[in-house]
Design goal:
The structure is a single chain. This protein is mainly α. It has a domain at 25-76. It is 67% helix and 0% strand. It has four helices and no strands. It has helices at 3-6, 15-21, 28-55, 60-71. Helix 3 crosses helix 4 (60-71). It starts with a helix and ends in a 5-residue tail after the last helix.
Length: 76
């Protein structure tokens, strides 16, 4: 028997429910603050990579993997 033929149709999400998940647009000031935070995090990661490359020479892939492990609390 074909299960797909007897499957019930998926109900469309109501307009009220979909609005609950929408967020208002970010203001330019908020976007600038987010960009600054991302830049600061990027700078920190680059410094970490530079220092790690002094101990683990020529293994950029390994350094990247180690950083992923450190930043994800070991969940790799």
């Amino acid at each position: 028997m074909n299960d797909s033929a007897s499957a019930a149709p998926v109900a469309a999400t109501s307009d009220e429910n979909s609005r609950a998940y929408l967020k208002p647009p970010i203001s330019p000031e908020e976007m600038k603050a987010i960009d600054q935070e991302i830049g600061a995090g990027r700078d920190l990661i680059l410094k970490l990579k530079k220092e790690m490359s002094l101990a683990v020479v020529g293994q950029t892939g390994l350094i990247d993997s180690l950083l992923v492990g450190l930043l994800s609390d070991g969940h790799v």
